[in-house]
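Blackboard transcription, Thursday session:
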Amino acid sequence: MFRVLAIAAIIGTAGACVLHLLVFGPPHKDAGGGKPEIRRFSVLERLAHALTLLSFLTLGATGFYAVLSGWPSLTGKLMLYHYYAAPAFAIGAALIVAGWSADAGFKPYDLRWMIQMGGYIWKRDHLPAGRFNAGQKAYFWIVATAGFAVILSGLGRLWPALDPTGQCVLLWVHRLSALFLVAWALAHAYLGTLANPGTIQAIITGRVSEKWAKAHHPLWEKSGKDKETSS
Ligand code: HEM
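(Written on the board underneath:)
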């Protein structure tokens, strides 16, 4: 049953992203380019993101390979890789939550971004957004809560402390929170690449152009926060 659910959620999310790209196209396709003169992410923030991304890919690939292959449970080498990647994921996610929670609190102006759906359906330019827009803030809290659930339930499966019913509940919490995270991560990857050209460089080089900042995060750009020239 979980196998069917996993296939439906993964194909459904990927399909929705492709459909969005074909029907609506990238809403801010003109915001790419320009001199990357504004610092957006520090080295520590980029390292934490890379650690979380790489460990998440390992955990997702090993866990879902077992599920999609119809194995009764995760075993052998795949289980070993899953064990090794787990602490890296916990550390990366904790660093991200600690570092970005101050910028992820919802503000009254986020309501406008939400109502206009970030301009992703009906094109709207310069919707109010601080360092993170309302969609990114929602994604942040989803990762924080589902990430906490996947880590706690994973630890609970490793060191069983509950009765068989409790352990079975833990397995389902682990499965569902993992699937929820994978589906949102697919959408997050789409939004950070194909849907918003020029955005991926922010998390790789840590810098963005003024044009990009004005189009995506006008209030953050206006505040001049973290602004410094690259020269
Ligand atoms: C600290 C983090 C994590 C720990 C300690 C952990 C631990 C475990 C353990 C012990 C199992 C075997 C469950 C069992 O059969 O008893 C498992 C399975 C699995 N894990 Fe994780 N895990 C972690 C994070 C993740 C993440 C982030 C994902 C997804 C991206 C994930 C996806 C899966 C999947 C899909 C399975 C297979 C479940 C099944 O057999 O139906 N895990 N994990």
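Lecturer's comment: The beta strands are 38-39, 207-208.
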